[in-house]
Write a structure and sequence with these properties.
about 200 residues, three-stranded antiparallel β-sheet, alpha+beta, about 20% helix, Cyclophilin, six-stranded antiparallel β-sheet
Amino acid sequence: MVTTEGDIDIRLYDETVLHRDNFVKLVKGHSFDSLLFHRVIKDFMIQGGDPDSKYAKPGEMLGEGDLGYKIPAELMPEKYFHRRGVLAAAREGDDVNPEKMSSASQFYIVWGTVFTPEQLERFRESYGKRTGKEIVMTPEQVEAYTTVGGTPHLDGGYTVFGEVISGLEVVDAIQNKRCDRNDRPLEDVRILKVEFVK
């Protein structure tokens, strides 16, 4: 992925075959070329893939664009979870999308935060009280969230289907951009092109 901030190399997971094949199809069709990272939240994630962002005017609100179809969820939170650097599919909320089906084109790359073991435990407890949902973590998840960081509250809710293997410094540069109140960078961060290398 060649961006205005530098290159990001991503490996797609074979186990999430529907998301992998869809992403490859979009790459081969140049669907991501010239799109923006339209939603950037520091210490959380960077999001792109909105087809409406290609010709968006400065300050225009983005995030509703799509390609007219959804991808069935491929949730594997014990294996593929929201540690820093993973690629995941954006989607509409549970209230209108209880099946957790993914957007055809919108994706995000996780940044997140690094937790101490105590912070992670407090987070699990407060999240459980707030939502009524218990977060159960594997030792691998605990290890990742207390060393490289991530966004554990998204686990099991969004399909993780790849990871950054080179260019995390580019993701860091993007997640540090100044943004407007809609989380759109004040200065456009554009995906110039995405190439598939087998």
